[in-house]
């Protein structure tokens, strides 16, 4: 079975939701010429990482993002893993990813569980406390958000739910590009699944440049497609039978020692 996945590496403008939503409309229309099954967006693609004071830029209940992503997934009949947005939920804000199926239904959500303390994200956002697995076109998928990538235990938990594809929306800076690539490939190799990693292009609110370099990676760690640091759309076919072939050669899941760790 094949799943064609596209990543939209959006050039995020800090604090300008309307502009970023307009850019998404344009880029998604362009991405659809490749006929992807699933499209992934970056972390906080509608406001950037992250304008202050955050309360002036939040999306109440993620309604604005949900309305747009539902419309676009239904219109183009494509699954959308909606990056993330700063959703006001009661009296707190969560960095939340909403997932849409081809009919425009929001079928899952995940709130970032590891907040990036060097940027004081933990002061502005509330951390999520659940692990999210969902199914797109019959394929088991999971999602983590940016800094979550540094915590392999979370990803391993998703792998143990037998996911085939891990989606990673991110806002990752150029100064740590080497970590971004290395960790994304490592998660693919150690868990023997596909990874779709979407970074933004542009800059953080403090002016630090974003690395771009969104990537589509197979379970052998091979990079099937990779962007540079500018605005970009990348696409690759994930041949999901590869996962089983690799697991029948090196079966790390059979050889694990959960009795030791
Ligand atoms: N948006 C983030 O979570 C940034 C993470 C990051 O820059 C890092 O882990 O390094």
From TrEMBL:
The residue ranges of the CN hydrolase domain are 3-240
InterPro entries named in the record: C-N_Hydrolase, C-N_Hydrolase_sf, UPF0012_CS
UniProt keyword Hydrolase present? yes
Domain of life, per lineage: Bacteria
**Keywords, ordered alphabetically:** Hydrolase
- State any single GO MF term: hydrolase activity
Fetch the PANTHER family from UniProt. Answer: DEAMINATED GLUTATHIONE AMIDASE, NITRILASE-RELATED
Q: What family is reported? A: Belongs to the carbon-nitrogen hydrolase superfamily. NIT1/NIT2 family.
Q: Which protein are we looking at?
A: Carbon-nitrogen hydrolase
Organism from which the protein derives: Schwartzia succinivorans DSM 10502
Q: Provide the organism lineage as a comma list.
A: Bacteria, Bacillati, Bacillota, Negativicutes, Selenomonadales
